[in-house]
Amino acid sequence: MLISRRNLFQGFAAAAVTGATAKSVAGAPVGIAVGEKLPALGTVASPVGPILLDHNENAYGPSEKVREALAEAPSAGNRYPREEYDLLMRDLAALHSVKEDHVLLGCGSSEILRMAATALTGARKGLVQALPTYATLGKFARSLGAEVTEVPLTHLFEHDLNTMLKRVGDGNASGLVYICNPNNPSATLTLRKDIDAFIRKLPPAVSVLIDEAYSHFVNPHGDYTSFLDRPIDDPRVIVCRTFSKVYGLAGMRIGYAVGAPEALKRLQPGQLRYGISRISAKAAIAALGDADYVRTAIKRNADDRQEFMNQTNIRMLRAVNSHANFALLDPMRPAVMVLDHLKHNNVLVAPPFPSMEQYIRVSFGIPEEMREFWRVMDLLPPTGKMAM
Predict the structure, then answer these.
(1) Which of 10, 86, 79, 88 has the alpha carbon at shortest distance from 287?
(2) 257 lies in a domain?
(3) pTM of the predicted model as reported, rounded to 2 decimal places
(4) Number of domains in the chain
(5) Contact at 8 Å (CB) between 112 and 240?
């Protein structure tokens, strides 16, 4: 059964997390319970291999239905996608209540971003985006000779849409505006009404790419609605989604765009042939048919996010309010030193981000991984005893 995000939250909002929780959906501990005394340093063995908290993956992996579909992989890997590609297009169109010509598949959302950069930016068409934000589109645009204008986030870590609008109209001949919402790496929201007003004021020739990679994880919020749940009647707007996050399929490389057919036709010349493998398509189709898992993943992430904030508060650290499956943590110590310490102890988090160098971005892992993260963090000297 396909499920839209709007219908999902109608049944789920009442169960949204509003305080600390100590159990996940499956009943396993989410992390270290509030007030629980940490194990003595050195008494907990590190899990085998590095703790991967650096790429905002779904650490729990895909659903059981997807795993069953992937069990057929040995018999599917020798063929190019045929009916699977069409079936995936059909299911995505049904999910978002659009016709199939409103959907464009990509090898991860990265291919969608590359196609947008190729079609909508270049030596004479610039890109305007936030600073910091997901860097891939900007890198593609620069490789094409485009001027990339970066506008710092506001003090609330929202897109500074007023300044972005000015930069679009300041003579740099912008062809594209990129809005990642929730934003990566800040995990923060820009209000829907503000984005709507921004789009209405844009010059007619400027397109807008709304990246909703983390949309499923947004706390029920009166000021947020996905552009796929409540579309805007503007053919310049393209919405980008991925199967890498809530569906747990980062390794399968499946992304897609939803937009007006005329907008997607501009992107299509840069589309890879067979960019979605037969195996990946099978996995994505199975994921779309498992609404229960999506509910579970959303609830579990809300629990893990709340537990991360609880542990942050216990240690008198700071974190930016998150609407994603990761958070920006201010360790109250030099971030470079903390990053080196974590890496030395086999815990990997994201590198520093421009204009937010005092923070570290931490993806939410499974409970055992988060226990290890906090154990390693507690090996650092107290903030009041740092040698500066």
Answers:
(1) 88
(2) yes
(3) 0.86
(4) 2
(5) yes
